[in-house]
Amino acid sequence: MPRLTDATWQARRQTYLEAAWRCFAREGVERTTMATIAREAGLSAGSSYVHFRSKDELVRAAITTSMDAVEELVHASITDGSATGPVPYLKALLRSIEQFATRMPGVDLLPLAVEGWAHAQHDPETARLVAASYTRIRGAWTDLARRWAVPGGPAAGLDPAAVAQSLGLAVLGHVAQRVLVPGTDLDAEVGGLAAWAAPHGRLTPRA
Length: 207
Known about the structure:
Elements: H1 6-27, H2 34-41, H3 45-51, H4 55-79, H5 86-101, H6 109-120, H7 124-148, H8 160-180, H9 186-197
Helix pairs in contact: 1-2, 1-4, 2-3, 4-5, 4-7, 5-9, 6-7, 6-8, 7-8
């Protein structure tokens, strides 16, 4: 069997990942088999084990690939001019996450994120990888919140670490609510948070 070039190897791996996302979206993570994913990918069942030694390894790869992309979105949204305060930043970030999650026809990655959280409860390695990713994201948010916490800033006087945890609460809460409650409106969510916090004068950007 000829040796695959690095480019071909990476392309086939990505093909399996995208096939896995489609299968997980249709059938759920637990019901999907490696053979099902191989058929979806249009490749042989045996070749899947060249890239992933087990279904657990494939699930981890699907989760970590998505988490890596979310980390990139977090960093991009910090530097794209929308990070003038928690409210505009949160709205821009959630829109970016929605666009990423629905970029593949027929696949919504947000329900798969919830399934991934459930999978992590029973797979210590997945739990470790997810926790490490969220820790890095929270660190980026903490650094951002320090910029907002300067005198006169939109989060002046607030603990940056607490602001970062609140951003995490809003993002994870949006994912869960959007998956569990059809018709959840992103603008209403963020607007409600802003109105709720407005009496404290903390979360609305100053003119």
